[in-house]
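Model it.
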Amino acid sequence: MTTQQFTGTEESGQAAGPGTSGRAEPGTTTVSGGARGAGQPAASRGRTTIADVVVVKIAGMAAREIPGVHDMGGGFSRTISAVRDRVPGGRPNVGRGVKVEVGERQTAVDLDLVLEYGVPVMEVAGAVRENVIAAVERITGLEVVEVNVAINDVHLPEDDDAGTDARVE
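Modeled.
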């Protein structure tokens, strides 16, 4: 999965993202610059960085918690994941269908969803937005400026039986 780093400028005029400190790894965001010295509170001594994949996983888990969300990702990524999940030791990718842009203090999230047939699309999308924003802001402290939801497919009840062939017994 490819994530993009926010490269705009913040209100302070400094560039956002890992380039601000000169020492952060690509794909990470420095949340607090950190203070130095014995006179500073212990909790603020040092830097805190959050990898983009952390935000991806939090958003993916939060979206999947909402009733009516069947799966996430586009058709091709779901197909690849289905094959990988059948391999012994393969585990589901909670970040599938999630893209993020992360700045120093803000993040934006894009989600690709597959919903269950019959659920009210706008209500589920709204619930997903609320849950993702609450989870990401609570866990990371980043402000979520937007959550874009794309409904890529609808899971039909007969899709569960698609793997069996009634002609072969």
